[in-house]
Amino acid sequence: MTGPQQRPDADQSAGPEQVGGERRSGLRNPDKAVRGLGAGTMALEALVLLLAIQPIRVVGGDLSGAAIGAIVALAVACVVLAGMMRRPWAWHAGTVLQGLLLLSGLLHWSLFALGVMFALVWAYALHVRRVILG
């Protein structure tokens, strides 16, 4: 091989990611990138929720069975939504999930704090989605 080879998929011809001859973003597959962002956000939220149970119990005081059940249910919902990011309704369901996490703050104050943090992260993911996909 004497020179760099051109890959067949490196062609810059007009494709679905181009609008009016210009690419919407510098990404090869912006839809897939945005789905990965949403799925990664949901998976991270599920992991943090599950890992937060013990520290909340130790530091935050009494954590009721209802609060633990809510945490596990929300974590399971996050995992399910992470796998469903292909569907447009999953983004709306993710927003509802953030509201439910905020609402679970009625069970324990630390769940409200987690809800605020993840609501901000989710709002940023929605902003990035809107900027990339238009």
Automatic annotation (TrEMBL):
It holds the Pfam family DUF4233. The keyword Cytoplasm does not apply. The keyword Flavoprotein does not apply. The chain crosses the membrane at residues 33-53, 65-84, 96-125. Residues 20-33 have a biased composition (Basic and acidic residues). Keywords: Membrane, Transmembrane, Transmembrane helix. Residues 1-33 are annotated as: Disordered. This is DUF4233 domain-containing protein. It comes from Micromonospora echinospora.
